Amino acid sequence: MMNVRTAITILSVFFLSVFAKAQYTMHKMINVGYVYQNQSFGEIGGKLLFLKSDDVIYRLGGSALMGSSNSQFAIMPKLQADVLLNFEKNVDFYHSYYFLVGAEGTNKYLAPKVGISLFGILDLTGGYAIPIGNARLNGKKMEGVNINFTLNIPTVFIHDMFN
Fold first, then answer.
1. How far lies 155's CA from each of 5, 43, 70, in Å?
2. Measured distance CA(114)–CA(107) in Å, rounded
3. DSSP assignment of 114-146, as one string?
4. 13, 41, 100, 162 — which has fewest CB within 10 A?
5. How many CB atoms neighbour CB 130 within 10 A?
6. Are 44 and 32 in contact (CB under 8 A)?
7. Integer distance in angstroms from the first to the last C-alpha of the chain?
8. Are the beta carbons of 146 and 36 closer than 8 angstroms?
9. Among residues 141, 92, 89, 84, which one has the least CA distance to residue 116?
């Protein structure tokens, strides 16, 4: 079974090799959302969005999952990496949706995921969590269906809203 350090290393090497080949612009985002992983969690964190064209978008992020597990408050750190794809040309509403493929990992599980993203801002993804070793959260094993609903707010939008 792959541990978290190995997964982070593989994701880092992949993304760094992609970014070394071309000039990408970077945008910062704040994300808030809901995660279901054998129980409900709220999520808050940040992401970096990298793009050269809007056909393929890369995102790296870190966040905190917060919720109640077996009647005890719990917080889990989460790292994630996503690739958003849309190669459709000559459409009226240019690139309004993206196919999303990615992975997320906490100190309790790793979860590959797929889904859709509207404008790269509103994500709905699903996947399957694979527990890391015998890791449990307040006695509950983190394994099975993983569902994410996330709102990604560009910091440029927040800055413009208050100026």
1. 29, 17, 35
2. 21
3. EEEEETTTEEEEEEEEEESTT-EETTEE--EEE
4. 162
5. 16
6. yes
7. 49
8. yes
9. 84
Q: One-letter amino acid identity for 43?
A: E
C-beta neighbour count of 37 within 10 angstroms: 27
Collapsed DSSP state (helix, strand, coil) of residue 155: helix
Read off the pLDDT of each residue in 21-43 and give the average, rounded to a whole number: 88
Q: CA angle at residue 63 from 104 to 156, to 5 degrees?
A: 110
What is the DSSP-derived secondary structure letter of residue 70? Answer: T
What is each CA distance from 80 to 5, 24, 74, 128, in whole angstroms? 13, 19, 19, 14
